[in-house]
Amino acid sequence: MFGEDYNPNSRRRIIFYYTLSLCAVIVLMDVFSSWRTRPLEETITVDANRTKPVAIAPIQTPTELPTADRDIETAGDRIAAAVIYLKRKQNEPALNALEQASAATQRALARNPDKGVIREQLQATNQQLETVKDLIRSGRIGTATIALKEVDQKLEAVSY
Length: 160
Known about the structure:
The chain contains five helices and no strands. Helix content is 66%, strand content 0%. The chain is mainly α. The protein folds into two domains: 1-32; 70-159, Four Helix Bundle (Hemerythrin (Met), subunit A). The protein has helices at 8-33, 70-87, 91-111, 116-137, 141-159.
């Protein structure tokens, strides 16, 4: 079958050694699994004077969250999208997102003409957005990204 070197006794010997090795592995697994540590018993002592937990008064919070202006939120979302577009080196989608942010801040300005501080901040935001658009058009993407992050933080402060 295998030529002149075939010996049926060597084949039986190999099978015997494999069987013996398998039995040895099973015995070792059984021995190691029986060496489990005993469960540890812990004793906890409780102060006799303190049988009840200390009552903590709940913190009073305002029941109503401030209402967010959806146009200001939209502008912030569009600015965040512009930052992502700039990181991906997509200038045109970033400029489109900034146009949408400018339109949203203009809508917020038109809807709330009497609020002085918010109005000034929104106008400053629009001016900064125009500056950022010019930075993007001139190819200064890094500076534009940093400026947009600052504008987004200021706009976040305006919305609340």
